[in-house]
Amino acid sequence: MDKIILFDGICNFCRHSVQFIIKRDKNAVYKFASIQSDIGREIVYKHNISTNIDSLILIENNQCYYQSTAVLKICKHLKGEWKLLYCLLVVPRPIRNYLYEIVAKNRYKWFGQTDSCSLPSPELKNRFL
């Protein structure tokens, strides 16, 4: 089963994060979908994900992971030292998510947003749902 990352397609930080993951996901473990896309909305509905959630979402083995847990689980499959961040899952979730929430609440202010989702390049199109 594919590991799917749902992201905010109009958030510049989120879009750059997807590009960061793609560059380090040499085995193409992850597929991506913007939450604003038809398939993204369909996945959100299928997995009964709150539409008010302010998080990157990882769907793996039919389970949904949010906030810092999603990020750290994603790191597990990235090349290089990034996979070492996976061990931070031992840090209590409230502490990890406190930092995540600061970035999430300020991401538009700090990094900006676009009016629409951008389309992937032809060579990356198969990674997007």
UniProtKB/TrEMBL annotation:
Pfam assignment, any one: DCC1-like
Listed InterPro entries: DCC1-like (IPR007263), DCC_oxidoreductase (IPR052927)
MF terms (GO), sorted A to Z: protein-disulfide reductase activity
Entry superkingdom: Bacteria
TM region positions: none
Protein's name according to its UniProt entry: Thiol-disulfide oxidoreductase
Lineage: Bacteria, Bacillati, Bacillota, Bacilli, Bacillales
